[in-house]
Amino acid sequence: MRTPLLCLRLSRLCRLIIHFAKGLFKVTFRFPRWSLAERVDYIQTWSKQLTLILGVSLRVQGIGPGKYPEQHMLLANHISWLDIFILDSVTVSRFVAKSELRSWPIIGRLCIGTGTLFIERERKRDTARVNDAIVAALSEGHCVTVFPEGTTGCGRQLLPFRSSLLQAAIDGNATIQPVYLRYTDEDGKHSDAATYIGDMSIAQSVWRILGTRSLHAEINFLAPFPTDHKNRRILTQFIEARICTAHHALNPQSNNA
Predict the structure, then answer these.
(1) For the chain, is the Cβ count within 10 Å smaller at the N or the C terminus?
(2) Are the C-beta atoms of residues 76 and 181 closer than 8 Å to each other?
(3) Beta bridge mates, 75
(4) Backbone angles phi, psi at 252, to 5 degrees
(5) Residue 16, class by beta-carbon neighbours within 10 Å (0-12 exposed, 13-18 middle, 19+ buried)?
(6) Residues facing residue 59 across a β-bridge
(7) What are residue 146's DSSP bridge partners?
(8) 36-70 burial string, b = 16+ CB within 10 Å, else e?
(9) Structure confidence by residue, pLDDT tens digits, 160-211
């Protein structure tokens, strides 16, 4: 007999609150004293536990770059706030995220504590600052993840990729690895359960995920390559084409142009 939906949601919610509280404590009081390796291990373990609490099954396709690859940049399509933790379950990185995320309850504090780089996308001048921060992070041996669409999409179609933050990959001499993310149901068909778009609040999004009985998050790691392109727009087009190819291959019924 299946657990009633409300009971399932409430059970997961209680575990989720405890999990976030533990994470917030560790990030606030333990991270300052831990080494980078210890922080990376904790972020990965915490993220894996989060997916289990939410009932999300993880599928990994392709060859991942490892736990925390040095001077590496991941470029992924963007569907949900959950993308960050799904990726961290496999490859931990410093994310570039919209500045609004910083003010989110709990999640914002966790992102600050784990080294997220925030960008004010409505301010063009802020792009140069963030590019400099990414270059510095790459030069120090960090792994960085950028969502070149600039915002979350529905997952059924890809949004146009922006080239503004790709200059950092060139200047930082990073190894680039495109990643295609998608969320499916138990039959392997597209699922909207994790989608976070439009006027949806974070509370509404979490509540919907908590009530989803079968949700699979799929990470498709595409082949990495060195940054030998000198023009960020050409580089962006190349990455976009590769992720689009993966999107069409895995979603043959997609109407994405």
Answers:
(1) N
(2) yes
(3) 146, 178
(4) -60, -20
(5) middle
(6) 218
(7) 75
(8) eeebbebbbebbbbbbebbbbeeeeebebbeebbe
(9) 999 999 999 999 999 999 999 999 999 989 999 999 998 899 999 999 999 9
